[in-house]
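Changelog-linked ticket: protoporphyrin IX containing FE example.
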Amino acid sequence: MEYSFKTLYEEIGGQETIDKLVDAFYPRVYADQDLIPIFQGDIEEIKRKQRMFLSQFLGGPPLYSMEFGPPAMRARHMPHEVTPKRAKAWLRCMKEAFQEIGLDQIPAGQAFYDRLTQVAGIMVNTPDKE
Ligand code: HEM
């Protein structure tokens, strides 16, 4: 019996799908009232980093670590106030981006979104204000 295992990276369609997702996601983030206060950096640079990060996050080439070293995402988010409300907003933008490119329609896309939900929870580092 032979088994073949595909990574989520392969199952969702590789870098091309990641690029489409990132293009659909960040305009939403930069227009979201909850997220605007912390997303002040260059949108092109954050998109570039996210394309590289998501590649390795899904089992594709470790592009992010080749340039920036260990992902250490929680530590890298510490300079930014990530509240539960902002985590929800981030995931809402991501869900809409998944829907825009049809990634919510395949099982691998659902597995990918579930993993993002888990990691978003870990990124929270500040309580809500109100
Ligand atoms: C939970 C809600 C989240 C919020 C509010 C948030 C917010 C931010 C902010 C403000 C930055 C810095 C942007 C800049 O440089 O101007 C950032 C960077 C980044 N975020 Fe998030 N983030 C969240 C969740 C996530 C998750 C779940 C992932 C990955 C699965 C992720 C991946 C990244 C990456 C790769 C960077 C670039 C890190 C670097 O500077 O090298 N973020 N995020």
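Closing comment: Example verified and attached. Residues 84-101 form the longest helix (18 residues). Helices lie at 8-12, 14-29, 43-57, 63-68, 73-77, 84-101, 107-123.
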